[in-house]
């Protein structure tokens, strides 16, 4: 009987220690953290006239504060315009390069909260047959197009992820398709298990344009609009040309993901104030969890 009692104690103690080890392992594993991601074509700054940057600047600040993204990709921003945003939104830092080189031309800037995210590496490449050549353009498009990407570490959870930001051509369909193919090859070349976001103004309607098909074929990249558990707010076109919301599902601004990303909700934010819109595009937001 004594042996049985001792054995019983040993079994209970062993089970307790195993449970404790499991709990300790769970405690040491990075916790899943909610993350708000956004893409926003800012519309380049015009100094005068209707929808000038001085008129839009305070509305843009309030729009971004209302959206409260943790990290977002901004398209079309000019250097002085981005400096204004940085001054208006000191809670964010940003990384970018002008598409014409240096501070020249429009940026694919990546904004992030530095108290939460540490950029571990970043780079840029151009959407052309010579991606490493600054300001290169070889597919018939007159506007240079590019990608800025950053690998971040989330200081809270210790997790890492990639964030890619781009703007495809607005005129040449062949350039859009070649750009999508190049971006896909570059993502494949990472050969990484880390979660990845690809955001931007793709100038291509999701679900209709071949550039979208190239990137999402076989669920290589997943569209958060489709994978989200919930769609919040009105379903409108993401480009509105300062004319306000228009019903319909024409989305040219997307948030795509790859890897362990759960999507809780997506939203097209139709923010405006006293009839003034911050941009001719609406920002698109996704609330996600890195698995």
Structural class: alpha+beta
Radius of gyration: 22 Å
What is the CA–CA distance across the termini? 49 Å
Which CATH architecture of the largest domain would you pick?
Answer: 4-Layer Sandwich
* CATH fold node name of the largest domain: Deoxyribonuclease I, Chain A
Largest sheet: 7 strands, mixed
* Portion in beta strands: 25-35%
Rounded mean pLDDT score: 91
Number of strands: 13
- By CATH, the superfamily of the largest domain comes out as Endonuclease/exonuclease/phosphatase
Order of helices and strands: HEHEHEEEEEHEHEHEEEE
Oligomer: single chain
What is the level 1 CATH name of the largest domain?
Answer: Alpha Beta
Structural commentary:
It contains six helices and 13 strands. It has 291 residues and is an alpha+beta fold. The chain has two domains: 1-30; 33-290, Deoxyribonuclease I, Chain A (4-Layer Sandwich), CATH 3.60.10.10. The chain has a seven-stranded mixed sheet. The N and C termini lie far apart (49 Å). The model is unreliable at 1-30 (pLDDT under 50).
Q: What's this entry about, in short?
A:
This protein has 291 residues and is α+β, with helices and mostly antiparallel strands.
Q: What are the main properties of this structure?
A:
291 residues, alpha+beta, Deoxyribonuclease I, Chain A, 2 domains, seven-stranded mixed beta sheet, six-stranded mixed beta sheet, 6 helices, disordered N terminus
Question: What does the secondary structure layout of this molecule look like, with pairings?
Answer:
Blueprint: H1 2-28, E1 34-41, H2 53-67, E2 71-77, H3 79-88, E3 93-95, E4 107-112, E5 117-126, E6 146-154, E7 160-167, H4 173-190, E8 196-201, H5 210-216, E9 222-223, H6 224-227, E10 230-232, E11 253-258, E12 261-268, E13 284-290
Parallel strand pairs: 1-2, 7-8, 10-12
Antiparallel strand pairs: 1-13, 2-4, 3-4, 5-6, 6-7, 8-11, 9-11, 12-13
């Amino acid at each position: 009987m004594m042996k049985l009692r001792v054995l019983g104690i040993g079994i209970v103690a062993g089970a307790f220690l195993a449970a404790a080890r499991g709990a300790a392992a769970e405690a040491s594993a990075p916790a899943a953290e909610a993350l708000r991601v956004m893409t926003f074509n800012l519309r380049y700054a015009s100094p005068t006239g209707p929808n000038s940057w001085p008129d839009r600047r305070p509305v843009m600040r309030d729009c971004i504060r209302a959206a409260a993204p943790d990290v977002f990709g901004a398209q079309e921003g000019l250097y002085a315009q981005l400096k204004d945003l940085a001054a208006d939104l000191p809670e964010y830092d940003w990384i970018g390069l002008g598409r014409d080189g240096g501070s020249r031309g429009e940026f694919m800037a990546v904004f992030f909260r530095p108290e939460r995210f540490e950029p571990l590496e970043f780079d840029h490449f151009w959407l052309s047959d010579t991606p490493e050549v600054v300001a290169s353009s070889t597919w018939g498009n007159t506007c240079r197009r590019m990608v800025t990407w950053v690998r971040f570490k989330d200081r809270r959870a210790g997790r890492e992820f990639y964030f890619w930001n781009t703007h495809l051509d607005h005129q040449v369909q062949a350039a859009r398709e070649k750009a999508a193919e190049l971006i896909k090859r570059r993502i494949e070349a990472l050969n990484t298990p880390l979660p990845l976001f690809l955001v931007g103004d793709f100038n291509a309607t999701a679900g209709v344009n071949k550039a979208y098909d190239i990137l999402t074929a076989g669920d290589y990249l997943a569209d958060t609009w489709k994978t989200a558990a919930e769609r919040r707010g009105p379903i409108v076109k993401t480009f509105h040309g300062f004319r306000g919301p228009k019903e319909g599902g024409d989305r040219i601004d997307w948030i795509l993901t790859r890897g362990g990303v759960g999507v809780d909700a997506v939203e097209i934010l139709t923010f405006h104030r006293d009839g003034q819109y911050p941009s001719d595009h609406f920002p698109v937001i996704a609330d996600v969890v890195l698995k």
